[in-house]
Design goal:
Blueprint (H helix, E strand, L loop, with lengths): L1 H4 L13 H8 L7 H6 L4 H6 L4 H14 L21 E6 L3 H11 L8 E5 L6 H12 L3 E3 L11 E3 L5 E7 L2 E7 L11 H12 L3 E5 L8 H9 L3 E5 L9 H7 L5 E3 L1 H9 L10
Helix pairs in contact: 6-11, 8-9
């Protein structure tokens, strides 16, 4: 791919990336995957350094993939039962390969599901506004980068900014965004763990979490707390993942109610909404 061959001449910092390059290549709706390999290996490279080029970042992503533990042979984790009651909120987390998986999921999801939607995707801050516009277009609904104090609204997608965790808290008979900056269990920023944990604490049995493709174990701790509060978690299946790390960790921890590709995850989500209760 010519663009990747030319990558060493482009420094991965927000100011040095031109808007034309970001919007014209990295986030083309027809091929959302290349940005995963460029931008997600180590977000601090983009935020704080400015001295590393894209080839270095790609090499780091490859090294992380090669160090990921192999699946445990013969392990057949037991799936939890999926509650039948309608959900009150949908929280989705993803890392490497997640942009493509999110695109497939939202393209397959009905335009109305009747609940707020929260998304944590491992990406550095400079990419978030462009990604929000692209995801909103694919999803056919409004998508915004979350700001502290925002109210959750039905069918509005709120994205975690690249430099803060997206959490929620009840306030004045509604639910609002709280952005936090503490170190997460996984070390990721933003992390799935605080999002899942807070959603479970606020919405209890009405919480539904989805863990999509990604390296590592981000989301396991938060998913555990969500399940303890009565919520449910769906994991992406190995065959459709770019890297079956985060979903596998959730599955092996005994926290998943289903393991499916993104399009079928969308159908399962629809089946737990009041808008589309027969789509199971």
């Amino acid at each position: 791919m010519k663009e990747l061959a030319d990558a060493p001449s482009l420094e991965a910092t927000g100011k040095r990336f031109t808007r034309r390059w970001v919007e014209g290549y990295l986030l083309q709706p027809s091929d959302l995957r290349p940005i995963d390999h460029i931008a997600q290996a180590r977000p601090p490279v983009f935020v704080a350094s400015g001295t590393r080029d894209l080839r270095t970042t790609i090499a780091e992503a490859t090294a992380l993939y090669e160090r990921a533990p192999a699946p445990k042979p013969g392990v057949q984790p037991v799936l939890r039962s999926m509650p039948a009651d309608p959900i009150d909120v949908l929280a989705i987390g993803a890392s490497t390969g997640g942009i493509h998986a999110l695109g497939v999921l939202f393209h397959s999801l009905p335009k109305r599901i009747g609940v707020p939607i929260l998304v944590t995707q491992h990406l550095p801050p400079p990419f978030m506004p462009v990604f929000a516009r692209q995801l909103g277009t694919i999803a056919g609904r409004e998508c915004l980068v979350a700001e502290d104090g925002m109210r959750l609204r039905t069918d509005l997608i709120l994205l975690a900014p690249g430099d803060a965790h997206l959490t929620v808290e009840p306030m004045d008979r509604t639910t609002v965004v709280r952005l936090t900056h503490g170190r997460s269990v996984s070390g990721c920023m933003p992390s799935l763990d605080p999002m899942f944990a807070s959603v479970g604490a606020v919405f209890n049995t009405g919480a539904l979490g989805v863990v999509l493709t990604g390296i590592g174990r981000d989301g396991v701790e938060g998913a555990s707390r969500m399940v303890a509060c009565g919520g449910a978690v769906i994991a992406q299946d190995e065959g459709s993942c770019a890297v079956w790390g985060m979903p596998r960790a959730v599955l092996e921890a005994g926290l998943a109610c289903a393991v499916l590709p993104p399009d079928k995850i969308a159908r399962r989500i629809s089946g737990r909404t009041e808008e589309h209760p027969t789509c199971r």
